[in-house]
Amino acid sequence: MTITSPNDFSSSLRAASLGLLFSILTILYGQGMGIAFGLNEDLIKDRLKAEAVSVQDTIYNNDAAAMKAVTDKSWSYMKRAHLHAGGMGTTAIALVVVLCLIGASRKVTGILSLLLGAGGLGYSIYWMWAGFRAPGLGGTGAAKESLKLLAMPSSGGFVVATVAVFVLFLIWMVRGRGQDA
Question: In Å, what is the CA distance from 150 to each residue of 125, 153, 156?
C-alpha cells in the first residue's frame, strides 16, 4: 500500500505523533546540551573534577592521573550524548516519514515511531548520565554498568525499529516492482 492522498499521510503522521514528539524532544535535548556546553563548559568540567576529588581517597587512591582520565572520558561521554541526540532524533523523524510514505499500518507506525523516538531520547540521556556518574564511581565502565537498564532497552528498541522499517521498505519496494511492469 502507498499513500494516495494528503489525508492518508496526515492520518499516518497522527498515528506516529507520540514517537514524533519524543523524536523532536530528542533533537531539542541535543540542542540544549550544545547551548549548555557552549555557555558552561568550564563549569561542567569543574563539576566533574569536584565529583572525582570528593572520592579521591576512597575510589582513586589519590591517583591524580586516574582521576583526570575518568573526568576527561566523562566529558567525552557528554559530547557523545549531544551527538547521539541530534543524530538519533533526526533519524527517527526520517524513518517515521518513510513509514508514513510506504503506507505502513497505523498500529505498526505508532509502535515503531515510539520505539524510535523514545529509544533515541533514552540512549542520549544514558550517555549524559554516564558522563555525570563516572567521576564519582571511579570509571566509565562502572557508570555504564549502573545504567544498563536504560541503555539496553532504549538502544535495542531503536535498532529493532530501524531494522523493521528497513524490512517494511524492502517489502514495499518488491511489491512496487510488480506494479510497474
Answer: 9, 6, 10
Cell 489525508 sits at which residue?
A: 7
How high does pLDDT run on average in the chain?
93
Other Cβ atoms less than 10 A from the Cβ of 89: the count is 25
The type of residue at 131 is G
- pLDDT digits 0-9 by tens, 85-106: 999 999 999 999 999 999 999 9
Identify which of 152, 169, 65, 58 has the alpha carbon closest to the alpha carbon of residue 109.
169
Rounded CA-CA distance 144/132 in Å is 11
Q: Which residue has the cell 528498541?
A: 157
Residue pair 109/16 in contact by the 8 Å Cβ criterion: yes
In order of 61, 96, 103, 133, 174, the CA distances from 120 in angstroms are 37, 13, 23, 20, 29
Where helices occur in the chain by DSSP H, the ranges are 6-15, 17-53, 64-102, 106-137, 140-146, 148-180
Task: Give the count of beta carbons closer than 10 Å to the beta carbon of residue 70.
Answer: 27
Looking at residue 103, the DSSP 8-state letter turns out to be T
